[in-house]
Specification:
two-stranded antiparallel sheet, 277 residues, alpha+beta, three-stranded antiparallel β-sheet
């Protein structure tokens, strides 16, 4: 019924042999270059309706199970929030729900380069989403400059792989959902009660300028966080019952950098956000 193809570079490495009759239609079994447009009308219509129903069901599942600030949320820079973005946790939930396995076919090239002591300036990883049968149903790409992490290859690899994973999940057909449909589901809910239990963060508001010394950037907003601001950040987090791991996760999700690598402007906003949470 099926046999493995030896070419390891082929996207779908399983060839499926259709029977002579497919749902009662002999012609379906002899199509060499299969296209959905060649399907019988009723089969094509049923397939469209099934996909639409499944898509709506997936969006409803996301609405019921995703946690704002953990699985999705806005990335804030200088007090301005983006539209809702998918986080790594949310991407992993979707992969688990759909039984998809994320693989990075070119990550070994960077592992070999590190072992050989080669200078790596940019990391570009490809992510493939595989079914348990070996089919690739989604692909994504993530990139990271090593200098952004001050030469920390491990951090750069993790962040590039995270970006590639999220990109591959969005390419499954969710990119539009996270810029429109999902945003509408959470912000324009009729009674506003269906997602309160799942929402951990308050609605995004532009914060007032904190009346603390660390909020004054003195022209230093685009430079790396100072030790005084970093200490203030950690003290503020501690007062809210947060530990370093929490601050690290929040910084990576919101600004894609470690807390120690935040810029002054980002750190000041981060502090005010924690205070109001």
């Amino acid at each position: 019924m099926e046999h493995q193809i030896t070419n390891e570079h082929q996207i779908n490495n399983v060839e499926v042999m259709f029977p002579e009759k497919y749902n009662g239609y002999e012609e379906a079994g002899i199509i060499t270059n299969f296209s959905p447009m060649d399907m019988p009308i009723n089969v094509f219509s049923d397939a469209l309706n099934r996909r639409e129903a499944n898509s709506n069901l997936l969006l409803q599942w996301i609405k019921d199970n995703f946690v704002r600030g953990v699985d999705f949320g806005s990335i804030h820079i200088a007090g301005k929030g983006s539209k809702d973005s998918l986080y790594k946790s949310g991407a992993e939930k979707i992969c688990g729900l759909m039984s998809l396995i994320a693989r990075y076919p070119n990550i070994h090239l960077y592992e070999e380069a590190v072992i050989k002591g080669q200078d790596i300036k940019v990391i570009i990883l490809k992510c493939e989403l595989h079914t348990h049968q070996g089919f690739i149903v989604g692909e994504g790409v993530g990139a990271r400059r090593v200098e952004q992490d001050y030469g920390d290859i491990n951090s750069s690899l993790k962040l590039a792989s995270k970006s590639a994973l999220i990109d591959s999940v969005l390419r499954l057909g969710l990119s539009n959902s996270f810029t429109q449909d999902l945003e509408d589901m959470f912000k324009n809910n009729d009674n506003g009660n269906s997602h309160k239990a799942k929402q951990q963060e308050p609605p995004v508001q532009k914060p007032e300028t904190p009346a603390t010394n660390c909020s004054k950037s003195n022209g230093n907003g685009n430079k790396r966080i100072t030790s005084a601001t970093y200490n203030h950040l950690m003290e503020t987090a501690k007062s809210k019952g947060l530990i370093y791991a929490d601050v690290k996760r929040m910084a990576l999700e919101r600004f894609a950098v470690m807390p120690e690598h935040l810029r002054e402007e980002e750190a000041n906003y981060f502090i005010s956000e924690i205070k109001t949470s």
